[in-house]
Amino acid sequence: DFSWKLADHPKLPKGKTVAVVVLDGWGEADPDQYNCIHVAQTPTMDSLKKGAPERWRLVRAHGKAVGLPTEDDMGNSEVGHNALGAGRIFAQGAKLVDLALASGKIFEGEGFKYIKECFDKGTLHLIGLLSDGGVHSRLDQLQLLLKGCSENGAKRIRVHILTDGRDVLDGSSVGFVETLENDLAKLREKGIDAQIASGGGRMYVTMDRYENDWGVVKRGWDAQVLGEAPHKFRSAVEAVKKLREDPKANDQYLPPFVIVDESGKAVGQIVDGDAVVTFNFRADRMVMIAKALEYADFDKFDRVRVPKIRYAGMLQYDGELKLPNRYLVSPPEIDRTSGEYLVHNGIRTFACSETVKFGHVTFFWNGNRSGYFNPSMEEYVEIPSDSGITFNVQPKMKALEIAEKARDAILSRKFHQVRVNLPNGDMVGHTGDIEATVVGCKAADEAVKIILDAIEQVGGIYVVTADHGNAEDMVKRNKTGQPLLDKAGKIQILTSHTLQPVPIAIGGPGLASGVRFRKDVPDGGLANVAATVMNLHGFEAPTDYEPTLVEVVDN
Ligand code: 3PG
Ligand code: CO
Q1: Given its phi and psi angles, is residue 322 left (phi above 0), alpha (psi -120 to 50 degrees) or beta?
Q2: Is 370 a catalytic residue?
Q3: Among the bound ligands, the one closest to the CA of 209
Q4: Which end of the chain is less crowded, N or C, counting CB atoms within 10 A of the terminal residue's CB?
Protein backbone atom coordinates (compact mmCIF):
# COMPACT_ATOMS: atom_id res chain seq x y z
CA ASP A 1 0.00 0.00 0.00
CA PHE A 2 2.80 2.32 -0.93
CA SER A 3 1.69 5.78 -1.91
CA TRP A 4 3.50 8.71 -3.45
CA LYS A 5 1.14 11.08 -1.68
CA LEU A 6 2.91 13.24 0.90
CA ALA A 7 1.05 14.41 3.98
CA ASP A 8 0.39 18.13 4.32
CA HIS A 9 2.73 19.94 6.64
CA PRO A 10 0.63 20.99 9.66
CA LYS A 11 1.93 24.55 9.67
CA LEU A 12 3.68 25.40 6.41
CA PRO A 13 1.83 26.59 3.31
CA LYS A 14 2.05 25.24 -0.21
CA GLY A 15 2.61 27.06 -3.44
CA LYS A 16 5.73 29.05 -2.59
CA THR A 17 8.55 29.21 -5.07
CA VAL A 18 11.56 27.52 -3.49
CA ALA A 19 15.03 28.13 -4.92
CA VAL A 20 17.51 25.39 -4.04
CA VAL A 21 21.05 26.56 -4.71
CA VAL A 22 23.96 24.15 -4.44
CA LEU A 23 27.37 25.80 -4.39
CA ASP A 24 29.71 23.09 -5.60
CA GLY A 25 32.88 22.70 -3.55
CA TRP A 26 31.98 25.35 -0.98
CA GLY A 27 32.93 24.28 2.54
CA GLU A 28 33.33 26.14 5.80
CA ALA A 29 36.84 26.49 7.21
CA ASP A 30 38.92 28.85 9.33
CA PRO A 31 39.87 31.98 7.47
CA ASP A 32 43.38 32.20 6.09
CA GLN A 33 45.11 32.96 2.81
CA TYR A 34 44.42 29.48 1.41
CA ASN A 35 40.69 29.77 2.10
CA CYS A 36 39.58 31.18 -1.25
CA ILE A 37 36.02 31.72 -0.05
CA HIS A 38 37.34 33.85 2.78
CA VAL A 39 39.75 35.75 0.52
CA ALA A 40 37.11 36.36 -2.16
CA GLN A 41 34.51 39.06 -1.83
CA THR A 42 31.38 37.08 -1.07
CA PRO A 43 28.97 39.62 0.42
CA THR A 44 25.86 37.56 -0.27
CA MET A 45 27.07 34.41 1.42
CA ASP A 46 28.56 36.52 4.22
CA SER A 47 25.25 38.21 4.84
CA LEU A 48 23.46 34.87 5.06
CA LYS A 49 25.94 33.75 7.67
CA LYS A 50 25.81 36.98 9.61
CA GLY A 51 22.06 37.32 9.22
CA ALA A 52 19.62 35.29 11.26
CA PRO A 53 21.59 32.82 13.38
CA GLU A 54 18.65 30.44 13.50
CA ARG A 55 18.57 30.29 9.70
CA TRP A 56 22.19 29.45 8.97
CA ARG A 57 24.07 26.38 10.08
CA LEU A 58 26.61 23.80 9.01
CA VAL A 59 25.88 20.29 7.82
CA ARG A 60 28.14 17.29 7.39
CA ALA A 61 29.15 16.48 3.85
CA HIS A 62 31.78 13.74 4.10
CA GLY A 63 32.34 10.23 5.41
CA LYS A 64 29.48 8.23 6.84
CA ALA A 65 27.05 11.15 6.64
CA VAL A 66 27.02 10.59 2.87
CA GLY A 67 27.42 6.80 2.81
CA LEU A 68 31.19 6.61 2.40
CA PRO A 69 33.24 3.89 4.12
CA THR A 70 35.08 5.99 6.73
CA GLU A 71 35.29 9.41 8.31
CA ASP A 72 38.55 9.92 6.41
CA ASP A 73 36.65 9.95 3.11
CA MET A 74 36.19 13.45 1.78
CA GLY A 75 32.85 14.34 0.32
CA ASN A 76 32.18 14.45 -3.39
CA SER A 77 29.49 15.57 -5.75
CA GLU A 78 28.06 12.16 -6.47
CA VAL A 79 27.43 11.16 -2.89
CA GLY A 80 26.61 14.74 -1.92
CA HIS A 81 23.91 15.26 -4.53
CA ASN A 82 22.61 11.72 -3.98
CA ALA A 83 22.12 12.55 -0.29
CA LEU A 84 20.64 15.98 -1.01
CA GLY A 85 18.12 14.53 -3.45
CA ALA A 86 17.31 11.22 -1.79
CA GLY A 87 16.97 12.37 1.81
CA ARG A 88 18.48 9.15 3.10
CA ILE A 89 22.01 7.81 3.46
CA PHE A 90 22.79 4.92 1.14
CA ALA A 91 25.93 2.82 1.33
CA GLN A 92 27.71 4.16 -1.72
CA GLY A 93 29.74 2.48 -4.46
CA ALA A 94 33.02 2.73 -2.57
CA LYS A 95 31.52 0.89 0.38
CA LEU A 96 29.58 -1.66 -1.65
CA VAL A 97 32.70 -2.62 -3.60
CA ASP A 98 34.68 -2.92 -0.34
CA LEU A 99 32.06 -5.31 1.04
CA ALA A 100 31.87 -7.39 -2.14
CA LEU A 101 35.65 -7.72 -2.24
CA ALA A 102 35.94 -8.52 1.46
CA SER A 103 33.34 -11.28 1.29
CA GLY A 104 34.58 -12.54 -2.06
CA LYS A 105 31.02 -12.30 -3.41
CA ILE A 106 32.23 -10.13 -6.27
CA PHE A 107 33.91 -13.23 -7.75
CA GLU A 108 30.75 -15.32 -7.49
CA GLY A 109 28.35 -12.89 -9.12
CA GLU A 110 26.82 -12.94 -12.58
CA GLY A 111 29.00 -10.12 -13.85
CA PHE A 112 32.22 -11.87 -12.94
CA LYS A 113 31.04 -15.20 -14.36
CA TYR A 114 30.28 -13.40 -17.60
CA ILE A 115 33.77 -11.94 -18.06
CA LYS A 116 35.47 -15.06 -16.73
CA GLU A 117 34.37 -16.93 -19.86
CA CYS A 118 37.13 -15.04 -21.68
CA PHE A 119 39.93 -15.84 -19.25
CA ASP A 120 41.00 -19.04 -21.03
CA LYS A 121 41.68 -17.65 -24.47
CA GLY A 122 41.43 -13.88 -24.14
CA THR A 123 43.01 -11.01 -22.24
CA LEU A 124 41.40 -9.29 -19.27
CA HIS A 125 41.62 -5.48 -19.55
CA LEU A 126 41.09 -3.30 -16.50
CA ILE A 127 40.46 0.38 -17.21
CA GLY A 128 40.16 3.05 -14.54
CA LEU A 129 41.47 5.81 -12.32
CA LEU A 130 44.70 4.93 -10.52
CA SER A 131 44.83 6.57 -7.09
CA ASP A 132 43.64 6.19 -3.55
CA GLY A 133 41.32 9.20 -3.82
CA GLY A 134 38.25 7.11 -3.09
CA VAL A 135 36.01 9.36 -5.18
CA HIS A 136 35.86 7.34 -8.41
CA SER A 137 38.01 4.32 -7.58
CA ARG A 138 40.59 3.07 -5.10
CA LEU A 139 43.97 1.48 -5.63
CA ASP A 140 43.41 -1.13 -2.92
CA GLN A 141 40.23 -2.24 -4.67
CA LEU A 142 42.15 -2.60 -7.95
CA GLN A 143 44.76 -4.65 -6.11
CA LEU A 144 42.12 -7.01 -4.70
CA LEU A 145 40.48 -7.23 -8.11
CA LEU A 146 43.80 -8.19 -9.72
CA LYS A 147 44.37 -10.81 -7.04
CA GLY A 148 40.89 -12.27 -7.37
CA CYS A 149 40.95 -12.31 -11.17
CA SER A 150 44.32 -14.06 -11.26
CA GLU A 151 43.18 -16.60 -8.67
CA ASN A 152 40.09 -17.19 -10.76
CA GLY A 153 41.93 -18.04 -13.92
CA ALA A 154 42.92 -14.80 -15.68
CA LYS A 155 46.18 -15.59 -17.48
CA ARG A 156 46.79 -12.41 -19.40
CA ILE A 157 45.93 -9.07 -17.82
CA ARG A 158 46.37 -5.55 -19.17
CA VAL A 159 45.74 -2.48 -17.04
CA HIS A 160 44.86 0.81 -18.71
CA ILE A 161 45.54 3.53 -16.18
CA LEU A 162 44.23 7.05 -15.84
CA THR A 163 46.40 9.29 -13.68
CA ASP A 164 44.65 11.41 -11.05
CA GLY A 165 46.07 14.54 -9.38
CA ARG A 166 42.52 15.81 -8.80
CA ASP A 167 41.26 13.70 -5.89
CA VAL A 168 44.86 13.35 -4.66
CA LEU A 169 47.95 15.56 -4.78
CA ASP A 170 49.37 16.39 -8.18
CA GLY A 171 52.52 14.36 -8.77
CA SER A 172 51.35 11.41 -6.71
CA SER A 173 50.68 9.38 -9.87
CA VAL A 174 54.31 8.27 -10.08
CA GLY A 175 54.03 6.48 -6.73
CA PHE A 176 50.75 4.83 -7.64
CA VAL A 177 52.19 3.57 -10.93
CA GLU A 178 55.24 2.19 -9.11
CA THR A 179 53.01 0.35 -6.66
CA LEU A 180 50.94 -1.13 -9.45
CA GLU A 181 54.06 -2.12 -11.41
CA ASN A 182 55.32 -3.99 -8.35
CA ASP A 183 52.04 -5.85 -8.00
CA LEU A 184 52.07 -6.79 -11.66
CA ALA A 185 55.67 -7.96 -11.42
CA LYS A 186 54.62 -10.28 -8.60
CA LEU A 187 51.83 -11.65 -10.76
CA ARG A 188 54.34 -12.25 -13.54
CA GLU A 189 56.48 -14.26 -11.12
CA LYS A 190 53.44 -16.49 -10.70
CA GLY A 191 53.27 -17.01 -14.43
CA ILE A 192 50.55 -14.50 -15.21
CA ASP A 193 51.27 -12.23 -18.14
CA ALA A 194 50.27 -8.95 -16.47
CA GLN A 195 51.29 -5.45 -17.59
CA ILE A 196 50.19 -1.86 -17.79
CA ALA A 197 49.18 -1.31 -21.41
CA SER A 198 48.26 2.35 -21.72
CA GLY A 199 47.59 5.51 -19.79
CA GLY A 200 46.78 9.18 -19.74
CA GLY A 201 45.53 11.94 -17.46
CA ARG A 202 41.94 11.54 -16.28
CA MET A 203 40.81 14.97 -17.51
CA TYR A 204 42.31 14.46 -20.96
CA VAL A 205 41.78 10.77 -21.51
CA THR A 206 38.55 8.73 -21.06
CA MET A 207 36.97 10.33 -17.98
CA ASP A 208 34.82 13.08 -19.49
CA ARG A 209 31.28 13.44 -18.17
CA TYR A 210 27.85 14.53 -19.34
CA GLU A 211 29.03 14.47 -22.96
CA ASN A 212 31.08 17.62 -22.54
CA ASP A 213 33.82 16.48 -24.94
CA TRP A 214 33.77 13.12 -26.72
CA GLY A 215 37.33 13.80 -27.88
CA VAL A 216 38.44 12.85 -24.37
CA VAL A 217 36.83 9.44 -24.66
CA LYS A 218 38.17 8.97 -28.18
CA ARG A 219 41.75 9.58 -27.02
CA GLY A 220 41.22 6.79 -24.50
CA TRP A 221 39.63 4.48 -27.07
CA ASP A 222 42.54 4.97 -29.44
CA ALA A 223 45.09 4.09 -26.76
CA GLN A 224 43.19 1.32 -24.97
CA VAL A 225 41.41 -0.42 -27.84
CA LEU A 226 43.45 0.46 -30.92
CA GLY A 227 46.83 0.67 -29.19
CA GLU A 228 47.50 4.06 -30.75
CA ALA A 229 48.76 7.17 -28.94
CA PRO A 230 51.15 10.02 -29.65
CA HIS A 231 53.54 8.78 -26.97
CA LYS A 232 55.05 5.32 -26.77
CA PHE A 233 57.09 3.98 -23.87
CA ARG A 234 58.50 0.66 -22.72
CA SER A 235 57.15 1.14 -19.19
CA ALA A 236 54.44 3.15 -17.48
CA VAL A 237 56.74 4.49 -14.77
CA GLU A 238 59.00 5.85 -17.48
CA ALA A 239 55.97 7.25 -19.31
CA VAL A 240 54.63 9.17 -16.36
CA LYS A 241 58.03 10.47 -15.29
CA LYS A 242 58.97 11.57 -18.81
CA LEU A 243 55.63 13.19 -19.60
CA ARG A 244 55.74 15.09 -16.31
CA GLU A 245 59.06 16.65 -17.26
CA ASP A 246 57.18 19.16 -19.39
CA PRO A 247 56.88 22.13 -16.98
CA LYS A 248 53.23 22.55 -17.90
CA ALA A 249 52.38 18.89 -17.36
CA ASN A 250 50.28 17.62 -14.49
CA ASP A 251 48.71 14.31 -13.57
CA GLN A 252 45.16 15.35 -14.49
CA TYR A 253 46.07 16.25 -18.06
CA LEU A 254 48.88 13.84 -19.03
CA PRO A 255 48.67 13.04 -22.74
CA PRO A 256 47.72 9.51 -23.77
CA PHE A 257 50.47 6.93 -24.08
CA VAL A 258 50.76 3.27 -24.93
CA ILE A 259 53.28 0.75 -23.71
CA VAL A 260 55.08 -1.04 -26.51
CA ASP A 261 57.25 -4.15 -26.76
CA GLU A 262 60.80 -4.26 -28.15
CA SER A 263 59.45 -4.27 -31.70
CA GLY A 264 57.41 -1.12 -31.02
CA LYS A 265 54.06 -2.91 -30.97
CA ALA A 266 51.45 -1.93 -28.38
CA VAL A 267 51.29 -4.60 -25.68
CA GLY A 268 47.62 -4.32 -24.89
CA GLN A 269 45.15 -3.61 -27.67
CA ILE A 270 41.64 -4.83 -26.96
CA VAL A 271 40.67 -7.52 -29.46
CA ASP A 272 37.89 -10.02 -30.14
CA GLY A 273 37.45 -12.49 -27.31
CA ASP A 274 38.83 -10.20 -24.59
CA ALA A 275 37.15 -9.22 -21.33
CA VAL A 276 37.01 -5.60 -20.21
CA VAL A 277 36.24 -4.20 -16.76
CA THR A 278 36.02 -0.49 -15.99
CA PHE A 279 36.97 -0.52 -12.33
CA ASN A 280 35.68 2.90 -11.26
CA PHE A 281 32.64 2.66 -9.02
CA ARG A 282 31.48 6.22 -9.57
CA ALA A 283 29.14 6.70 -12.47
CA ASP A 284 29.43 10.13 -14.06
CA ARG A 285 32.81 9.78 -15.69
CA MET A 286 32.25 6.15 -16.77
CA VAL A 287 28.97 6.55 -18.65
CA MET A 288 30.59 7.76 -21.86
CA ILE A 289 33.25 5.05 -22.11
CA ALA A 290 30.61 2.47 -21.18
CA LYS A 291 28.52 3.61 -24.15
CA ALA A 292 31.54 3.38 -26.45
CA LEU A 293 32.34 -0.13 -25.22
CA GLU A 294 28.78 -1.42 -25.16
CA TYR A 295 26.62 0.18 -27.82
CA ALA A 296 26.41 -1.40 -31.27
CA ASP A 297 24.97 1.82 -32.65
CA PHE A 298 27.34 4.60 -31.74
CA ASP A 299 28.11 7.78 -33.63
CA LYS A 300 30.00 9.97 -31.17
CA PHE A 301 33.36 9.26 -32.78
CA ASP A 302 34.76 6.75 -35.23
CA ARG A 303 35.69 3.69 -33.22
CA VAL A 304 37.56 2.31 -36.28
CA ARG A 305 37.50 -1.23 -34.89
CA VAL A 306 34.85 -2.54 -32.51
CA PRO A 307 36.13 -5.67 -30.82
CA LYS A 308 33.71 -8.39 -29.74
CA ILE A 309 34.32 -8.33 -26.01
CA ARG A 310 32.64 -9.23 -22.77
CA TYR A 311 32.39 -5.98 -20.83
CA ALA A 312 31.39 -5.36 -17.22
CA GLY A 313 31.44 -2.20 -15.14
CA MET A 314 32.52 -2.28 -11.52
CA LEU A 315 28.95 -1.06 -10.98
CA GLN A 316 26.05 -0.38 -13.24
CA TYR A 317 26.50 3.30 -13.95
CA ASP A 318 23.03 4.29 -15.16
CA GLY A 319 20.02 2.45 -13.81
CA GLU A 320 17.62 3.93 -16.33
CA LEU A 321 19.76 3.07 -19.36
CA LYS A 322 20.86 -0.22 -17.74
CA LEU A 323 24.40 0.78 -18.62
CA PRO A 324 26.44 -1.27 -18.67
CA ASN A 325 24.30 -4.33 -18.88
CA ARG A 326 26.81 -6.41 -16.89
CA TYR A 327 28.51 -5.30 -13.70
CA LEU A 328 30.47 -6.82 -10.84
CA VAL A 329 28.71 -5.11 -7.91
CA SER A 330 25.12 -3.94 -7.69
CA PRO A 331 24.86 -0.16 -7.30
CA PRO A 332 23.04 1.46 -4.36
CA GLU A 333 19.32 1.32 -4.97
CA ILE A 334 18.49 4.95 -4.52
CA ASP A 335 14.73 4.92 -4.84
CA ARG A 336 11.89 7.28 -3.88
CA THR A 337 13.99 10.42 -4.22
CA SER A 338 12.57 13.78 -3.20
CA GLY A 339 12.38 14.80 -6.84
CA GLU A 340 10.12 11.90 -7.68
CA TYR A 341 7.92 12.49 -4.63
CA LEU A 342 7.55 16.17 -5.30
CA VAL A 343 6.61 15.66 -8.92
CA HIS A 344 3.92 13.20 -7.79
CA ASN A 345 2.66 15.87 -5.41
CA GLY A 346 2.27 18.56 -8.00
CA ILE A 347 5.57 20.38 -7.56
CA ARG A 348 6.74 21.76 -10.89
CA THR A 349 10.49 21.70 -11.03
CA PHE A 350 13.20 23.52 -12.94
CA ALA A 351 16.81 22.36 -12.71
CA CYS A 352 19.82 23.97 -14.31
CA SER A 353 23.58 23.97 -14.40
CA GLU A 354 26.29 24.06 -17.01
CA THR A 355 27.39 20.85 -18.70
CA VAL A 356 30.14 19.85 -16.29
CA LYS A 357 27.69 19.88 -13.37
CA PHE A 358 24.39 19.40 -15.19
CA GLY A 359 24.02 15.76 -14.21
CA HIS A 360 24.68 16.66 -10.59
CA VAL A 361 21.33 18.46 -10.17
CA THR A 362 19.49 15.98 -12.41
CA PHE A 363 21.10 12.52 -12.62
CA PHE A 364 22.74 12.42 -9.17
CA TRP A 365 19.91 14.36 -7.54
CA ASN A 366 17.45 11.80 -8.86
CA GLY A 367 19.40 8.78 -7.59
CA ASN A 368 21.65 8.16 -10.61
CA ARG A 369 18.72 8.13 -12.95
CA SER A 370 18.79 9.94 -16.26
CA GLY A 371 15.77 11.66 -17.75
CA TYR A 372 12.59 13.18 -16.34
CA PHE A 373 10.12 11.58 -13.95
CA ASN A 374 7.35 13.49 -15.65
CA PRO A 375 8.31 15.77 -18.53
CA SER A 376 5.14 17.80 -18.22
CA MET A 377 6.12 18.78 -14.67
CA GLU A 378 9.86 19.25 -15.05
CA GLU A 379 12.27 21.26 -17.12
CA TYR A 380 16.01 20.62 -17.05
CA VAL A 381 18.22 23.19 -18.73
CA GLU A 382 21.86 22.59 -19.56
CA ILE A 383 24.10 25.54 -20.34
CA PRO A 384 27.01 24.38 -22.50
CA SER A 385 30.30 24.53 -20.63
CA ASP A 386 33.42 25.82 -22.28
CA SER A 387 35.23 22.66 -23.33
CA GLY A 388 38.88 22.02 -23.91
CA ILE A 389 39.97 24.49 -21.23
CA THR A 390 40.96 24.24 -17.60
CA PHE A 391 38.64 26.43 -15.61
CA ASN A 392 41.31 28.61 -14.06
CA VAL A 393 41.34 30.27 -17.49
CA GLN A 394 37.61 31.09 -17.23
CA PRO A 395 36.98 31.03 -13.48
CA LYS A 396 33.63 32.75 -13.73
CA MET A 397 32.47 29.79 -15.79
CA LYS A 398 28.74 30.02 -16.59
CA ALA A 399 27.68 31.12 -13.10
CA LEU A 400 26.01 34.27 -14.39
CA GLU A 401 24.17 32.42 -17.16
CA ILE A 402 22.95 29.76 -14.70
CA ALA A 403 21.73 32.46 -12.32
CA GLU A 404 19.93 34.27 -15.12
CA LYS A 405 18.17 31.09 -16.21
CA ALA A 406 17.17 30.46 -12.61
CA ARG A 407 15.99 34.06 -12.23
CA ASP A 408 13.87 33.78 -15.36
CA ALA A 409 12.42 30.48 -14.19
CA ILE A 410 11.55 32.02 -10.82
CA LEU A 411 10.03 35.16 -12.30
CA SER A 412 7.99 33.10 -14.79
CA ARG A 413 6.11 31.72 -11.79
CA LYS A 414 5.77 28.47 -13.69
CA PHE A 415 7.79 26.44 -11.18
CA HIS A 416 7.59 25.61 -7.50
CA GLN A 417 11.17 24.46 -7.24
CA VAL A 418 14.10 26.05 -9.05
CA ARG A 419 17.27 24.10 -8.44
CA VAL A 420 20.76 24.97 -9.60
CA ASN A 421 24.37 23.97 -9.12
CA LEU A 422 26.99 26.72 -9.23
CA PRO A 423 30.25 24.97 -10.16
CA ASN A 424 33.00 27.54 -9.57
CA GLY A 425 34.33 26.69 -6.12
CA ASP A 426 34.77 23.10 -7.18
CA MET A 427 35.83 23.22 -10.81
CA VAL A 428 38.28 26.06 -10.36
CA GLY A 429 39.39 24.70 -6.99
CA HIS A 430 40.40 21.43 -8.68
CA THR A 431 42.88 23.32 -10.86
CA GLY A 432 44.83 24.32 -7.75
CA ASP A 433 45.02 27.90 -9.00
CA ILE A 434 44.36 29.98 -5.90
CA GLU A 435 43.92 33.35 -7.58
CA ALA A 436 41.52 31.94 -10.13
CA THR A 437 39.56 30.13 -7.42
CA VAL A 438 39.09 33.43 -5.61
CA VAL A 439 37.66 34.91 -8.80
CA GLY A 440 35.41 31.87 -9.19
CA CYS A 441 34.07 32.13 -5.64
CA LYS A 442 33.18 35.79 -6.16
CA ALA A 443 31.32 34.90 -9.34
CA ALA A 444 29.37 32.17 -7.57
CA ASP A 445 28.44 34.61 -4.80
CA GLU A 446 27.17 37.11 -7.37
CA ALA A 447 25.08 34.36 -8.93
CA VAL A 448 23.51 33.58 -5.57
CA LYS A 449 22.59 37.25 -5.25
CA ILE A 450 20.73 37.23 -8.57
CA ILE A 451 18.72 34.20 -7.51
CA LEU A 452 17.91 35.62 -4.06
CA ASP A 453 16.78 38.88 -5.63
CA ALA A 454 14.36 36.99 -7.86
CA ILE A 455 13.05 35.05 -4.86
CA GLU A 456 12.54 38.38 -3.12
CA GLN A 457 10.44 39.60 -6.04
CA VAL A 458 8.08 36.61 -6.10
CA GLY A 459 7.79 36.28 -2.33
CA GLY A 460 9.54 32.92 -2.38
CA ILE A 461 11.90 30.92 -0.22
CA TYR A 462 15.56 30.09 -0.70
CA VAL A 463 17.73 27.24 0.46
CA VAL A 464 21.42 27.83 -0.19
CA THR A 465 23.83 25.00 0.52
CA ALA A 466 26.77 23.09 -0.92
CA ASP A 467 27.69 19.50 -1.74
CA HIS A 468 31.19 19.23 -0.20
CA GLY A 469 34.24 21.34 0.52
CA ASN A 470 36.95 22.33 -1.92
CA ALA A 471 37.66 26.07 -2.40
CA GLU A 472 37.77 26.82 1.33
CA ASP A 473 41.08 25.01 1.66
CA MET A 474 43.68 24.91 -1.07
CA VAL A 475 46.69 23.62 0.82
CA LYS A 476 47.70 20.27 2.21
CA ARG A 477 48.00 20.54 5.99
CA ASN A 478 49.59 18.59 8.82
CA LYS A 479 47.59 17.29 11.76
CA THR A 480 47.71 20.60 13.57
CA GLY A 481 46.41 22.45 10.55
CA GLN A 482 49.65 24.05 9.41
CA PRO A 483 50.44 24.04 5.67
CA LEU A 484 52.73 21.13 4.77
CA LEU A 485 55.87 22.00 2.89
CA ASP A 486 57.49 19.75 0.30
CA LYS A 487 61.22 18.99 0.15
CA ALA A 488 61.88 22.24 -1.66
CA GLY A 489 60.10 24.18 1.09
CA LYS A 490 57.09 24.95 -1.08
CA ILE A 491 53.50 24.57 0.03
CA GLN A 492 51.62 21.64 -1.46
CA ILE A 493 48.54 22.75 -3.30
CA LEU A 494 45.41 20.79 -2.49
CA THR A 495 43.47 20.20 -5.69
CA SER A 496 41.03 17.81 -4.07
CA HIS A 497 37.88 18.11 -1.98
CA THR A 498 38.04 18.35 1.80
CA LEU A 499 36.45 16.88 4.92
CA GLN A 500 34.87 20.19 5.87
CA PRO A 501 31.19 20.73 6.64
CA VAL A 502 29.16 22.98 4.39
CA PRO A 503 26.77 25.83 5.14
CA ILE A 504 23.04 25.78 4.68
CA ALA A 505 20.96 28.94 4.83
CA ILE A 506 17.22 29.39 4.48
CA GLY A 507 15.20 32.56 4.09
CA GLY A 508 13.17 34.70 1.75
CA PRO A 509 9.92 36.61 2.13
CA GLY A 510 7.88 33.43 1.68
CA LEU A 511 9.41 31.70 4.66
CA ALA A 512 6.92 31.66 7.53
CA SER A 513 8.23 33.77 10.39
CA GLY A 514 8.46 30.94 12.92
CA VAL A 515 10.66 28.71 10.78
CA ARG A 516 14.13 28.11 12.18
CA PHE A 517 16.75 25.40 12.37
CA ARG A 518 16.12 22.86 15.09
CA LYS A 519 18.74 22.48 17.78
CA ASP A 520 18.22 18.74 18.16
CA VAL A 521 19.92 17.58 14.94
CA PRO A 522 23.44 18.82 15.65
CA ASP A 523 24.97 16.10 13.47
CA GLY A 524 22.72 16.89 10.54
CA GLY A 525 24.15 16.22 7.13
CA LEU A 526 23.27 16.64 3.49
CA ALA A 527 20.70 13.86 3.72
CA ASN A 528 18.63 16.02 6.08
CA VAL A 529 18.13 18.65 3.42
CA ALA A 530 15.51 16.78 1.36
CA ALA A 531 12.99 16.62 4.21
CA THR A 532 13.72 20.27 4.92
CA VAL A 533 12.93 21.26 1.34
CA MET A 534 9.76 19.14 1.34
CA ASN A 535 8.61 21.04 4.43
CA LEU A 536 9.25 24.35 2.71
CA HIS A 537 7.02 23.15 -0.14
CA GLY A 538 4.30 22.52 2.48
CA PHE A 539 4.68 18.74 2.87
CA GLU A 540 5.78 16.32 5.53
CA ALA A 541 8.66 14.12 4.42
CA PRO A 542 8.27 10.34 4.25
CA THR A 543 8.92 8.80 7.67
CA ASP A 544 12.07 6.98 6.60
CA TYR A 545 13.75 10.17 5.38
CA GLU A 546 16.45 11.69 7.55
CA PRO A 547 14.78 14.25 9.81
CA THR A 548 14.11 17.77 8.68
CA LEU A 549 16.45 20.51 9.87
CA VAL A 550 13.63 22.98 10.51
CA GLU A 551 10.90 23.49 13.06
CA VAL A 552 8.11 26.02 13.21
CA VAL A 553 7.68 27.94 16.43
CA ASP A 554 4.65 30.06 17.20
CA ASN A 555 5.37 33.72 17.52
C1 3PG B 1 35.75 15.05 -10.50
O2 3PG B 1 35.22 14.06 -11.00
O3 3PG B 1 35.85 16.13 -11.09
C4 3PG B 1 36.36 14.92 -9.13
O5 3PG B 1 36.94 13.65 -8.98
C6 3PG B 1 35.31 15.06 -8.09
O7 3PG B 1 34.60 16.25 -8.25
P8 3PG B 1 33.04 16.34 -7.99
O9 3PG B 1 32.71 15.26 -7.00
O10 3PG B 1 32.90 17.71 -7.41
O11 3PG B 1 32.35 16.18 -9.28
CO1 CO C 1 34.90 18.31 -7.29
Answers
A1: left
A2: no
A3: 1
A4: N
